[in-house]
Design goal:
Blueprint (H helix, E strand, L loop, with lengths): L3 H4 L6 E4 L5 H11 L6 H9 L3 E7 L2 E11 L2 E9 L8 H15 L4 E6 L4 H9 L3 E12 L2 E11 L16
Parallel strand pairs: 4-5
Antiparallel strand pairs: 1-2, 2-3, 3-4, 5-7, 6-7
Length: about 170
Amino acid sequence: MATAPEMFAVPEMTIRPMRALDVAEVVAIEHASYQFPWSEGIFRDCLRVGYTCRVATAGRVLMGYAVMSTGAGEAHILNVCVAETFRCRGLGRHLMLALIERAAAVGVREAFLEVRPSNTAAIRLYLSMGFVQLGMRRGYYQAVGGREDAAVLRLTVAGAGPVLCAVPASEP
C-alpha cells in the first residue's frame, strides 16, 4: 500500500505549449471542473490568436492547463485548471510560474486575473505568489441562481520577479 507522501507525489512533469491535439483532453478537464466551463471553441480560438496556452503533462497524461493573453505591457491570466486527481500537489503553482516566466520574457510589467471569492484554494495560491487584490467586479461570473462577483488581483512582474520554478517549458 502506498504511503501518504507517495500518494500525493507529483509525477515527473513537463510544462509545454498546448497543441490542437490537446484540446479534447483540456475540455474534458474543464467540463469536469466547472459548472460553467469554456467550450472547445474558446480553447481553439485561444490557440488560433496566439495566446500563451500551456499544459502540464507526465508522460502521456495531461494533468492541467493554463491560458494567458498579453499585450500593452500587461498579461491577463484567463484560465488555470488542474485535473482533480492531481490537485493539491503544486501543479497549479508550476503552471502559474510558467505563465509568469513567459510574461516576463515578453516584457510584461503587470499580470492580472479574476477569481471567484468562493475559490479559496486559488486565492491562497495567488496571494502566496505575490498577487494583491485590487477590487471586485460585481456579477462577473455566471453562477447557479444568478451571478457571482470576481476578485481582481494583480502581480507586478518586471523587477518584482517571483521565484521561478525549474520546470522545463518550451516556447513557441
